[in-house]
Amino acid sequence: MSATTLDAPPASPAQARSQRLRDPAFWADWAALVGLIGLTIVFQSLNSTFLSSGNVQSILVAAAILIILSIGQTYTIATGGIDLSVASVMTFAAVVFGWSFTEGWALPLCMAAAVATGLLAGALNGFIIAKGKIPDFVVTLGSLSAASGLALILSDGKPTTVISPFLLKLSTQGIGIFGWTFLLALVLAALTHVLLFNTRFGTHVLAAGGSAEAATATGISTARIKIAVYTISGTLAGLCGILLVARIGASSPAADTTMTLNTVAAVVLGGVSLLGGRATIIGPVLGALVLTVLVNGLTLVGVSQFYQPLSVGIVVVLAALLMRFQK
């Protein structure tokens, strides 16, 4: 055999880096981080106050709720499902918090009631999906409407002012530019990362999302996994109900439906497969930051808020196109 038919010598480090940069899979895996860096550079060049400590702190505080909701959404999507009710469950939990507060309950009990509301809503979603064999989309779409309706009924359609020194400190104070709500989001991200990648439960979640039939054949109860991931999503939504009350100083029955779409967008930007079986926690965290930075930056440079949903939609579609090249 001639020397010309032998395998080519291994590529040099420079050639290897060049090949990675030309590989669409590289950009698909790092889309959220690259987008975050790119948007930061663009908005800082357009407005010098973008990276001021006050604005950065505002961005991080605004991103906290979306980060936590996106973590819960990651678990449901990792199993091949989706939770469309997270924003409405969060709103309902906030209303329960406001109602119990006006009834004179102690603050810890009000907080426990809000979290329990989210937990029960998530567990009910998971039970109906797993045991009723009904598609996730249909069940959570129904619970979206039901939670919104219950919030309106319990509050009589009126917001409730909540005045609490603890909640005020929670929403306005922190360590340096890192508010307590953002630090809480980071702690939850770390804990859920360990749960997903360093426990048997996490392995079962990814296995159930990769192939439910194969997971069942190996003895994994996919029904229990479904119930568990929706319970996690609902519980985190209940916690976000408390953070929402702390942020605006009131519990309002008006649900922000765009928050649900943004959680899915953050998950997609973060590189989580919508088909299940592939997930990450840091990706959706970065995705939530990208969306928050995008809205904040557009506001700073004077772009009308009517164009902001359009820009978010474009970013999500581009991220979805990149997902085709993921390895």
UniProtKB/TrEMBL annotation:
Q: Where in the cell is it found?
A: Cell membrane
Name any one GO molecular function. transmembrane transporter activity
Membrane topology of the entry: Multi-pass membrane protein
UniProt key word Transmembrane: yes
> Pfam families attached here?
BPD_transp_2
What keyword terms does UniProt attach to this protein? Answer: Cell membrane, Membrane, Transmembrane, Transmembrane helix
**A single GO cellular-component term on record:** plasma membrane
Q: Which InterPro entries match?
A: ABC_transp_permease
Residues spanning the membrane: 25-44, 50-69, 81-99, 105-130, 137-155, 175-197, 227-246, 258-275, 282-300, 306-325
Broad class of the protein's primary localization: membrane
Q: Do you know which PANTHER family this protein is assigned to?
A: ABC TRANSPORTER PERMEASE PROTEIN YPHD-RELATED-RELATED, RIBOSE IMPORT PERMEASE PROTEIN RBSC
Protein name according to UniProt: ABC transporter permease
Query: What organism is the protein native to?
Result: Kineosporia babensis
The opening ranks of the lineage are: Bacteria, Bacillati, Actinomycetota, Actinomycetes, Kineosporiales
